[in-house]
Amino acid sequence: MRLGSRPPVVGIAAETLDFAREAARDAHPNEYLGVLQATPSADLDGFRDRDGVVVTDILVIPATKSGPTSATMRRHLVPNDNRTVGSIHSHPSGVLRPSDEDRQTFGAGVVHVILGAPYGPDDWRAFDSEGERRSLPVLDVDLPDPESFFDFTQEDIDEELE
User: Fold this and answer.
1) Active site residue 160
2) Which of 3, 68, 88, 99 has the fewest CB atoms within 10 Å, i.e. the most exposed one?
3) Per the database record, which ranges form the MPN domain (predicted)?
C-alpha cells in the first residue's frame, strides 16, 4: 500500500446495513444521513486473513438537518480519522443513483451508500468517490454488543486512570 492510501473497503456488515435501513425508514419521508466508519478486517473474527476494512459503524453527526429532498451535516464535526470511509444517506423517492449534489459531496471518502424507499434488502447501492457504482459485499460479521460499551465498573475506571 502506498503512503497516504487507505486500505480497501471489502464489505459492509449485514447488521450495520440493517441498522441504516431501519433508520432510513424511521426518518421517512425525510432523508437519513450518516458517516460510514470501518474496522480493520484483522480485528474481526472470520476476516483476519483479509486485507482491508469492513464498514461496521454509522455515525450520525449532531445538528444534521434533513428534509424530503436533502440532508446536510456540519462537516467540521465529522471525524478526520482512518475509520471514516464515506457516507450513507437515503432517497425517500426511491431513486438509487446519486444526484449532482450527492456527487459533489462524495469526494470525502471511498464508499458512499444510497438507500431508497421502501428500504428493503435490495433497495440500496454503493458508489465510489466519483459517483460510479461499486461493489460492496454484505458480510456476516459478529459485531460487539453495543451494551458492552457501558459494561465497566468504578474499579475499571480507577485502573485506567492509574
Assistant:
1) no
2) 3
3) 10-133
